[in-house]
Amino acid sequence: MSREAAPAALPRPAPDLTDRAYWAGTIKMALSRFFVLQVLHDGPAHGYDIARAVERTTRGCCSPSEGALYPTLREFEQGGYVTGAAEIVSGRERKVYTLTDKGREAFRTGLAAWMEATATLAETDRSAAARGRAGGACGC
Predict the structure, then answer these.
(1) CA–CA separation, 48 vs 50, rounded Å?
(2) In what order do the strands lie in the sheet with 45-46?
(3) C-alpha distances in Å from residue 137, one per residue of 120, 124, 129, 133
(4) Strands 45-46 and 92-99
């Protein structure tokens, strides 16, 4: 009895780290998740309102699509960060999401982490600019 080997999966091409779009996509994906928590920290909302509030809050920087938003909300629900309940909103049944105490803790933790990362990035930018003006080498 012969067993044929399964076809080898094609290797995924390495990301182009010199492409600004790569970094923007990575950052926006993570920020969108954080801003979903932030919107729900302000109060319960259904998916469409969450997406619009994230877009408004970030002045268009993050605009989660349905394909990204609903899997995120399901993951948050499974983790106990949000609860979802069917409600009638504007005459239509919609799932309204509410942040749990665990979700509020996650929001506070995420906010602290993003603030720390932002401060580190700002310091890195100042240091890089100073080295650039001084004409010195990177020193990495």
Answers:
(1) 5
(2) 45-46, 92-99, 82-89
(3) 20, 14, 12, 11
(4) antiparallel
**SS3 assignment, position 111:** helix
Per-residue pLDDT tens digits of the chain, which is 140 residues long: 556 666 777 888 888 889 999 988 888 888 999 999 999 999 999 999 999 999 999 998 888 888 999 999 999 999 999 999 998 878 889 999 999 999 999 999 999 999 999 999 898 888 887 777 544 444 33
Confidence (pTM): 0.75
Cα-based distances in Å from 22 to 12, 19, 28, 127: 15, 5, 10, 24
**Assigned token pair, 30:** 């993570």
Dist CA 36 CA 49 (whole Å) = 10
Distances 39 to 9, 33, 54, 76 between C-alpha atoms, Å? 40, 10, 7, 13
Residue 62's Cβ-count burial label (10 Å; 0-12, 13-18, 19+) is buried
